[in-house]
Amino acid sequence: MIIRSAKPADLPQLRAIYAPYVLHTTVSFEYRVPSREEFAARFARITRRFPWLVAEEDGCILGYAYGDLPFARAAYAWDAETSIYIRQDCRGRGLGRALYAALEPLLAEMGFCNLYAIVTGENAASLAFHERLGYVRAAELPRAGYKFGRWHSTVWLLKVLAQEPGPAPLPPADPRDC
Hints:
The chain is α+β, with helices and mostly antiparallel strands. The chain is built from four helices and seven strands.
């Protein structure tokens, strides 16, 4: 298995990995799978500023992780949100740990001090995964999302990479990018 930067040619596989999370779980609060065009636009927006990594084996993408902005105001410039999706049949193989082991140092090198993971409260596996990697529960928002006919909480987890900020890693976000 290799970890590498995602590229536009990967988009069909990335979208295929994401689709079951949208359609069958509360991991994603989206109601419908983004179209190919919407997914490509999301990828282009994110990769203009952040790393998007894939775990690949024999030409097949098994999972991916990326960083993004959790907030748009300038004072939040040292915060990044992490997201990770593993192909359903590849979970439990250490792919998530390998992806984050590559992603987190990249975000630290870029100057990010705080990483946030936003996890659905009922997703015990993701909560445990992030906690094993040193994320701590920072907040829980009850009734944050409504999907499949019921309310769901979200848990915000925090991992501090650096105590003191250096220069802002990115210019303040353009509101059109959010």
